Amino acid sequence: MIRVAASTSVDFSPYEELFKRISALKKEMNALVLAHYYTLPEVQQAADIVGDSLALARAAEKNDADVIVFAGVYFMAETAKILNPAKQVLMPDAFAGCPLADSCPADEFRRFKAQHPGAIVITYINSTAEIKALSDITCTSSNVEHIIRQIPPEQQIIFGPDRNLGAYIAKKCNREMALWQGYCYVHDDFSEEYMLIACVEHPDAELIAHPECRDEVLRHAHFVGSTRALLDYTVSSSVNKFIVATEPGILYEMQRLSPQKIFMMAPGEPDNPRGVCTQMKQNTLEKLYECMVNRKPEIIVDEQLRCAALVSIRRMLEMSPV
Ligand code: 13P
Ligand code: SF4
Asked: How far, in Å, from the CA of 83 to the mean position of ligand 2?
């Protein structure tokens, strides 16, 4: 049988004591806990705000907390720090990096830019502060289309680091774009062949997919959207069964908001069944608690780099739909 696993409800009773301690620490420290949809269910449960990359960047920008605790991957916490130099930003595990962001080193990207003089550089938020500093506008999968449509048609565009998101949006907006050839191993792994088998086995289900998936998968999807857009679609759709081609952490929130519906993970290559972002799962509830107690790991960003990276992040927030 191909890898199609239904989501299950979660028993939080083993975590009650840690939930209480984290809640007390939040008050004591005036801390705001942010968690991405791909983190473990118990980490999402302990968070004040759970969201996709754009929602979390916005939440990091506007809050009255003294401390931000970011359960996500490094570039997300780094973005929170860039937006909030005066706040302490903590991460449960500072080694939780994003391989997509790491696939785009600044020196190589600088050379790539030099090959396209005059091009505007639009960069996915899944990138390092150095890459953001080399970019004109940052974007997320939620706002990339809205941002690209604001760029004059004659303007050449460089897009990085995700080639699948770049190719998807270039096709959708009918724009030529020079694409950096990075990819997210979680989304790139979904297999067209096994996806089609899953669709045949579940004819009453709709395939929904994140634009970090390959085009061969996206072209079969009933709906393509960011993690948040996929979640909203499952809530508003009259369909009751979904094959979900994105990171399985979102199944927890999908199931919570639509308990009567059935959610199945889309299949990847059977000999390479990854499908899970191991970096996101490095944020355990224990590490979340310990980072609050110890006030570390703390995210520190060099001030000159922070100011340079802030420009492209601010442009993103200004150009995003409200
Ligand atoms: P979004 O949160 O924008 O959907 O991005 C998905 C992702 O891969 C985050 O690392
Ligand atoms: Fe990076 Fe992919 Fe994990 Fe997102 S899901 S953090 S893009 S490796």
From this structure: 21
Determine if ligand 2 sits within 6 Å of the CB of residue 280.
yes
Q: Which two tokens stand for residue 173?
A: 């907006």
Contact 280, 249 (CB under 8 A): yes
> Which listed ligand is nearest to 210 at the C-alpha?
1
- Residues 22 and 24: their CA atoms lie apart, in Å, by 5
Instruction: Enumerate residues 6+ apart whose C-beta is below 8 A from 86.
Output: none
The full DSSP string for 211-267 is TTS-HHHHTT-SEE--HHHHHHHHHH-S--EEEEES-TTHHHHHHHH-TTSEEEEPP
- Ligand 1-lining residues (CB < 6 angstroms): 52-53, 98, 126, 140-142, 184, 212, 226-227
Ligand 1: distance of its center to the CA of 244 in Å?
A: 14
DSSP 205: P
Which domains are present in the chain? 13-97+280-301 (3.40.50.10800), 100-183+304-319 (3.40.50.10800), 190-265 (3.40.50.10800)
Ligand 2 probe mutation, 73, 74, 276, 278, most atoms within 8 A of CB: 73
Quote the ligand 1 centre to 176 CA distance (angstroms).
23
Tens digit of each residue's pLDDT, the chain (322 residues) = 344 555 557 899 999 999 999 999 999 999 999 999 999 999 999 999 999 998 998 899 889 999 999 999 999 999 999 999 999 999 999 999 999 999 999 999 999 999 999 999 999 999 999 999 999 999 999 999 999 999 999 999 999 999 999 999 999 999 999 999 999 999 999 989 988 999 999 999 999 999 999 999 999 999 999 999 999 999 999 999 999 999 999 999 999 999 999 999 988 776 655 579 999 999 999 999 999 999 999 999 999 999 999 999 999 999 998 7
